[in-house]
Amino acid sequence: MLMALFLHYSFFTCLVLFSALPNFCFCFNPKLLNVSKLDSGSGWSTARASWYGNPSGAGSDGGACGYQNAVEEAPFSSLITAAASSLYSSGKGCGTCYQVKCTTRAICSGKAVTVVVTDECPGCDSQSLLFDLSGTSFGTMATIGEADQLRNVGIEEIQYKSVPCNFRGVSVVFRVDPGSNANYFAAAIEYADGNGIVGVELKREADSGGAWLKMDRSWGAVWKKDLPNNYAPPFSIRLTGGGNSGKTLVANNVIPANYSPGKTYRSVVNFDT
């Protein structure tokens, strides 16, 4: 946690202090640049990344997307990242995936690591950082046995690109908000393949031929709806995927009649990727 605080708030303070020393400079050292691992094509962009939380952990439990301890479990498996506010985009970035790789040092593997946005880094934009990776994600970019050494760098230039999420055999999950009741329903949506979720709708089983009710994003990956009178479950939920696909997906009767607030319900569907 001390490492996270240092990275978020102290980097530029140290930079100013060191730059005031006589003869101090940032000098290019070609021995630190692994040219063979650079890849300027295939849609890769360059950014700076830090890491936070425990060295072998998942950053924080759930963070600003509402996934709670799911970030530590498969399929997230701690390979997650907090995103700068510009990328988090008021929760629209939750559940989107990126490949990241480190190529500028001999201890960098140059191999792409897929991470999921599960949190926000509010101070990252001001520090010219795009990703605040979990300790696990940051260390996975290193060659075998060099994870701690790479984490000791603290802030590293990386290459990244947006990719569709593919959780391989895992269906979409709905984590019902503890505040849900007969008049209000909310749930966090987890493990959706593709490029995030841009729309969510709700319909009760009794209205099988009726209209879908549009849900609104509450915060992070949590979507909410004030229910009409006597609007009882079971509920089906329809998702609209992000990107340019416009794909829709229906989880029929995924929320049972006797659902319990705070519990998680797994569908049997996911987007094709």
What would you note in describing this structure?
- By secondary structure, this protein is mostly beta strands.
- The chain is built from five helices and 15 strands.
- 40% of the residues are buried.
- Mean pLDDT is 86; it is low at 1-40.
Secondary structure: elements and pairs:
Blueprint: H1 2-9, H2 11-19, E1 45-52, E2 80-84, H3 85-88, E3 97-101, E4 113-121, E5 131-134, H4 135-140, H5 147-153, E6 156-163, E7 173-176, E8 184-190, E9 197-204, E10 213-214, E11 216-219, E12 222-226, E13 235-241, E14 248-255, E15 264-266
Parallel strand pairs: 1-5, 2-4
Antiparallel strand pairs: 1-6, 2-5, 3-4, 3-6, 7-8, 7-15, 8-12, 9-10, 9-13, 11-12, 13-14
Look at the structure and give the mean pLDDT.
Answer: 86
Oligomer: single chain
Helix content: 10-25%
- Sequence of strands across the biggest β-sheet: 1-5-2-4-3-6
DSSP, total strands: 15
Q: Would you identify the regions where 5 or more consecutive residues have pLDDT less than 50?
A: 1-40
Q: Which class do the helix and strand fractions yield?
A: mainly beta
Shape: elongated
The proportion of residues in beta strands is 25-35%
> How many strands, what sense, and barrel or not for the largest sheet?
6 strands, mixed, barrel
Number of helices: 5
Q: Secondary-structure element order, as H and E?
A: HHEEHEEEHHEEEEEEEEEE
State the end-to-end distance: 36 Å
CA radius of gyration: 21 Å
